[in-house]
Design a protein that fits this description.
Elements (H helix, E strand, L loop, with lengths): L1 E4 L7 H4 L12 E6 L4 E7 L5 E6 L4 E6 L12 E4 L2 E4 L3 E4 L5 H7 L8 E2 L1 E10 L7 E9 L7 E4 L6 E4 L3 E5 L5 E10 L5 E9 L5
Antiparallel strand pairs: 1-11, 2-3, 3-16, 4-5, 4-6, 6-7, 8-9, 8-14, 10-11, 12-13, 14-15, 15-16
Length: about 210
Amino acid sequence: MTFTSFPACNGILSDIYDDAPEDEVKEFGFIEIDEANNSGTIYIDAQSYTKWTYINFRALSADSLHIENGMVEPEAWDIAIHRYDAKTNGASVIETGFTELSALKTSEKIPEGTYVEDIWATNKIAVDMSGMLEGNIKYAESFYNTELSKWLFVDTSTMPPAYNPSNKVYVIKLKDNTIVALRLKNFMNASAVKGYMTIEYIYPLKF
């Protein structure tokens, strides 16, 4: 774990720490599966700064683990989400110019360009925001995919922070050479509580 100091951000926590209503329906994971079209929808609770949610497209599973020293990742997973940060299990990612999965399918080809692998990051995965008003944020070291993490930019220079989704389709080449296409459809729930992510996907993507 590492600490990094930033200028004090008075008022920022009021927007970051939204509280879910008690009557919020809690149905998570692969909530829609269209086997005929290899597509569906994933819904996860990514509010916590101290958890990774590991997504396995083959098993259609999404499991959360607390971040801690010596944590053991699942044996099989494809991508993982921490808040809006993303990492992959030995994959590479490209941001496409498409804003709908159907448009990618209509193109009938895998996008060309530079596919980005994960990097090792020491100042991306924030796990403790309690000292933010004093300019201190605690980070966990982890792999991090800069390309997939573009799907939502959180601008903390404004009060409250501005949330700017890319609305783009991302294509992921997994380490077993199968391909996933996905798009972040929403980053909050029906009650406008941030941290609830709705992800549309096609897996495996074939033409």
